[in-house]
Amino acid sequence: MDWDKLRVFHAVAEAGSLTHAGETLHLSQSAVSRQIRGLEESLGATLFHRHARGLILTEQGELLLDATREMTRRLLAAGARIRDSKDEVFGELRVTTTVGFGAMWLTPRLPRFFAMYP
Predict the structure, then answer these.
(1) Which residues of the chain have pLDDT under 50?
(2) What is the pLDDT of residue 91?
(3) Residues 6+ apart with CB under 8 A from 55
(4) Disulfide engineering: 56 pairs with which of 49, 96, 101, 114, CB 3.0-4.6 Å?
(5) Measured between alpha carbons, how far is 61 from 32 in angstroms, rounded to an integer?
(6) What's the predicted TM-score (pTM) here?
(7) CA distance 77 to 96
(8) Which long-range contacts (CB under 8 A, 24 or more apart) does 90-95 make?
(9) Are strands 54-57 and 48-51 parallel, antiparallel or unpaired?
(10) Which long-range contacts (CB under 8 A, 24 or more apart) does 1-8 make?
(11) How many Cβ atoms sit within 10 Å of the Cβ of residue 99?
(12) CATH architecture designation of domain 3-85
């Protein structure tokens, strides 16, 4: 499946309108319509019932919307984990020092270091 078409589908399903989704995505209404039509053709299913007042999801559209919501949730969670992992310190730290420096400077600071990085 085409990720761009899924993104457009998700926006249309959430907005309930091709025009509103197009505004959100900075696409023309006709471009949004072409993307939806292409997705429907590739799936062999109608995703929306078109009415004068807007769009209503079909049963297949509801299934796809559930999937795109889950994908969005998982992508946001993955992004958060990636951002958070930049701040995480992990791995083994080995320090070699002289006895005097280790005893006088390093040893008093170790409890705070261990509290910060268990």
Answers:
(1) none
(2) 80
(3) 12, 13, 16, 17, 18, 48, 49
(4) 49
(5) 16
(6) 0.69
(7) 39
(8) none
(9) antiparallel
(10) 1/39, 1/42, 1/43, 2/38, 2/39, 2/42, 4/35, 5/35, 5/36, 5/38, 5/39, 5/42, 6/39, 6/64, 6/68, 6/71, 8/32, 8/35, 8/36, 8/39
(11) 7
(12) Orthogonal Bundle (1.10)
* CB-CB neighbours of 55 under 10 Å: 20
Cα–Cα distance, 95 to 102 (Å, whole number): 9
Task: Give the pair of three-digit tokens for residue 88.
Answer: 């995480």
Q: How far apart are CA 39 and CA 43, in angstroms?
A: 6
CB of 99 within 8 A of CB of 84?
A: no
Q: Which residue type is seen at 105?
A: W
Task: Give the tokens for residue 20.
Answer: 């509103």
Length reported for the chain: 118
The percent of residues in the chain predicted with pLDDT above 70, rounded, is 97
pLDDT of amino acid 68? 97
Any idea where the domains of the chain sit in the sequence? 3-85
